[in-house]
């Protein structure tokens, strides 16, 4: 059996930086993404069109998007939390957007101040517009394993939310272990439930390395057919809403080392990743 090519989505410039206390300038964000472009990612998350009042780290994402050097071999996406963000994405000719919800009611209430149902009401006009304009949409599901407020998430609940995103027209659904409490067992149980509703080829795994289990969980996900993996260079960021311990996306360089160790096919460029890593560490 030939192994499929593992695709990596670099989330550092958005999911990473938005959770860093230290705010990066537009120029620094542009440089970071320009260093990430030659690394061989399937997609780079550039930023978020969220109000700078709420997330000052993501201010001027439009400028960042304009100024980066884009390669034809990579998708450049932005998170669109609402209608206003969608208008900005359209104005900036963004072709790839992301939307965000959680599999936990409590998390959504505390994080985006609405129920899961209300988050889908917000998605309706965004998805209608995206479908009209033929944009590619990535859907994020937070707390796919466990919620900092309500404890373990039922795999069935994740499957239900994933199915709704899929029915709305998402091309890819990223399943997030937001607080890093997943184990290979809970990760596999979740994936098995979700893949009964959404094709496995359209699922991505998004692990946080809070308790040092991210690589084990990614390995378990890959063994169960997932081949899209989210990571952030140097493990940037975390989740301010996920509780005091919710820190750090899995580091891209750790994922690279794992893929090489397992002889898995990928398109990452180790030299370029090392250069990007040094840029972040020496900033
Ligand atoms: Zn994350």
Distance between the termini: 43 Å
The level of helicity is 25-40%
**CATH level-4 homologous superfamily:** Aldolase class I
Proportion of residues in β-strands: 15-25%
**CATH top level label:** Alpha Beta
Please work out how many helical segments DSSP would assign: 11
| Rg from Cα | 17 Å
Indicate the low-confidence ranges by residue numbers: none
> What would the principal axes of the Cα set say about the shape?
globular
CATH topology: TIM Barrel
Tally the beta strands: 10
Tags for this model:
283 residues; alpha/beta; TIM Barrel; two-stranded antiparallel sheet; 10 strands; globular; binds zinc ion
Structure notes:
This protein is of the alpha/beta class and 283 residues long. It has a single domain, classed as Aldolase class I (TIM Barrel). It contains eleven helices and ten strands. Strands 1-2-3-4-5-8-9-10 form an eight-stranded parallel beta barrel, surrounded by six helices. It is globular. The structure holds zinc ion (ZN). Zinc ion (ZN) binds next to loops.
